[in-house]
């Protein structure tokens, strides 16, 4: 059931725009562009420090973006949606997460960017671009934002939850830079990729589920 009278219209246009932005960003990273170097250096200079409280927060909070944690959270969300018979939303969730993380693996091995050489504050292996933590968190919490818009009636709770969901990927991305396992451009690329797949998934959800349901209601 759709608990909102005016769900945002789903379109491939915003998703296509993000695809282009992501493609340009990935090309700049893979080519070692000076623009990327300047961007990374500027952001690192602002974010990174040796404050013990910040180090403790970053090394702990970054674990919330681990693949295992994101996978468990996705499975729990999927089960909850199935339990409440929100089958379309459940498959929307699963589809976006599978595609986003699968594509992330492909891009990592296509670009083959090495991680920052500075001492890492947490363990990290594999290639650097894009940040898997950023992709996974942007996709999962982007899905939660979509579900909140569609299923929550109260404007207060809707606004509050959207703010909370948006903060998680921002903070997780911040910690990946702070603990020196990713360049800022990795994190930004991960956010763009995650958002892109959420937009693509919602475009299909709207076209094949929400729009037909709305037409049925108007015809009754």
Automatic annotation (TrEMBL):
SMART domains: acidPPc. The chain crosses the membrane at residues 12-36, 56-81, 88-107, 127-152, 159-179, 191-210. It comes from Lactobacillus kefiranofaciens. It comes from the Bacteria. SUPFAM superfamilies: Acid phosphatase/Vanadium-dependent haloperoxidase. This is Phosphatase PAP2 family protein. Residues 87-202 form the Phosphatidic acid phosphatase type 2/haloperoxidase domain. Keywords: Membrane, Transmembrane, Transmembrane helix. InterPro entries: PAP2/HPO, PAP2/HPO_sf.
């Amino acid at each position: 059931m759709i608990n909102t009278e005016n769900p945002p219209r789903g379109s491939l246009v915003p998703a296509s725009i993000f695809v282009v932005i992501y493609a340009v960003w990935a090309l700049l990273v893979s080519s070692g562009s000076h623009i990327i170097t300047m961007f990374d250096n500027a952001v690192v200079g602002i974010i990174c420090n040796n404050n013990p409280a910040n180090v403790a927060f970053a090394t702990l909070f970054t674990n919330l973006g681990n693949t295992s944690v994101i996978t468990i959270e996705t499975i729990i969300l999927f089960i909850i949606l199935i339990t409440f018979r929100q089958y379309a939303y459940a498959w929307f969730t699963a589809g976006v997460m599978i595609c986003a993380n699968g594509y992330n693996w492909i891009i990592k091995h296509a670009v083959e960017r090495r991680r920052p050489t500075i001492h890492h504050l947490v363990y990290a292996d594999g290639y650097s671009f894009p940040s898997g933590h950023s992709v996974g968190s942007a996709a999962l919490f982007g899905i939660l934002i979509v579900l909140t818009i569609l299923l929550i009636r109260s404007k207060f709770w809707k606004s509050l939850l959207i703010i909370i969901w948006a903060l998680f990927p921002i903070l997780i991305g911040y910690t990946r830079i702070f603990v020196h396992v990713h360049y800022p451009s990795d994190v930004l690329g991960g956010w763009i990729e995650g958002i892109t797949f959420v937009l693509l998934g919602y475009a299909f959800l709207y076209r094949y589920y929400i729009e037909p349901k709305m037409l049925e209601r108007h015809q009754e």
